[in-house]
Amino acid sequence: MSASLLSAELTFSVVRPVLYTGCLTLALQASIEQLRSGDVRALARAISTVENRAPGCSDLLKSLFPHSGKARVIGMTGPPGAGKSTLVDQLARHYRTQDRTVGIIAVDPTSPYTGGAILGDRIRMQDHFADPGIYIRSMATRGSLGGLARTTADVATVLDASGRDLILIETVGVGQDEVDIVRLADITIVILVPGMGDDVQTIKAGIMEIADIFVINKSDRDGAERVEREIRALQSLAMRNDGWTPPIVKTVASEGVGVRELAAAIADYERYLQQENRALRKSVENWQERLVEMLRDAMLEKARAQLRNGSLERLAAEVAEHKRDPYTLVEEIAAKAQNR
Ligand SMILES: Nc1nc2c(ncn2[C@@H]2O[C@H](COP(=O)(O)OP(=O)(O)OP(=O)(O)O)[C@@H](O)[C@H]2O)c(=O)[nH]1
Ligand SMILES: [Mg+2]
What we know:
By secondary structure, the chain is α/β, with parallel strands linked by helices. Helices cover 56% and strands 11% of the residues. It is built from 14 helices and 7 strands. Helix 5 links the parallel strand 2 (102-107) and strand 3 (134-139). The relative contact order is 0.10. The structure holds guanosine-5'-triphosphate and magnesium ion. Guanosine-5'-triphosphate (GTP) binds at residues 80-86, 109, 117, 120, 172, 217-218, 220, 252-254.
């Protein structure tokens, strides 16, 4: 090989990575600009990247984060079939009349065996598809790589950076995952329905505690007063330490009844959040938890990288057979991960 060819080869191999990252950055920049200009396809692509933890996800989130933080995130949670989607739909409509743009994340309902709810959401919310001011995403992320709460938070960041004024997150209030999801919202609405009997008690205590606003949907049915009394009774047992008493709003979502009142209650709480820096303090609290979670994921990832395929099983067998003690083992793996 001639000397000049060799040097060309060398130059190329040195320059190529630089060019490559340069191209990536350009492509990323272009898609971020598209997304921020309201391009729905760019938004959908970005959400898919985040949802699937696809390559580029981390760079994308890093670039989008500075553009986020302006949207109001509202979490709506409650038992299966309480009318959450119907109410989200009505609220979205209401906000559209005020020219505010809306992003909706419907986190998969608990019932993986039907799959009907997602279809239901699509059909019910179909009217909005012609309106670019509403963007709806159903997420089927149970068992996903990043964890449900983390993925939802990241998808919310994408929507936020895309300039949506409001982000409504619908989730079925049944488990810790859901509590974690609604925790990331600025405002949490817990939706209950009459006829639950003593079930208000059985709704996970954590969910009751994080309600900023209660909704009694299906108030066209008997028993709305009773649910209201039960909520009041629970409230009198445990006062919130920030002094806010969550209001109770009765709605008939299928008829659009009470939606204005709900929007007014949301606005009241927003005003309350604005006072005494409460919004910021709440956000700091949320981030404290999220950062711990992100750190845990990052550390775990590093530790996993120390373990070759199948070695965890082998080590577990050694511990089970008392050939090794797990305490030293974990210290060793953690130390190796740290040195990476
Ligand atoms: N009677 C009555 N029916 C309602 C009301 N709101 C919603 N529904 C009906 O209740 C059913 C369930 O509504 P959804 O909005 O799908 O409930 P959901 O809470 O989103 O359900 P999942 O996502 O599956 O947990 C639908 O048939 C709605 O039409 C209401 O205020 N009164
Ligand atoms: Mg639903």
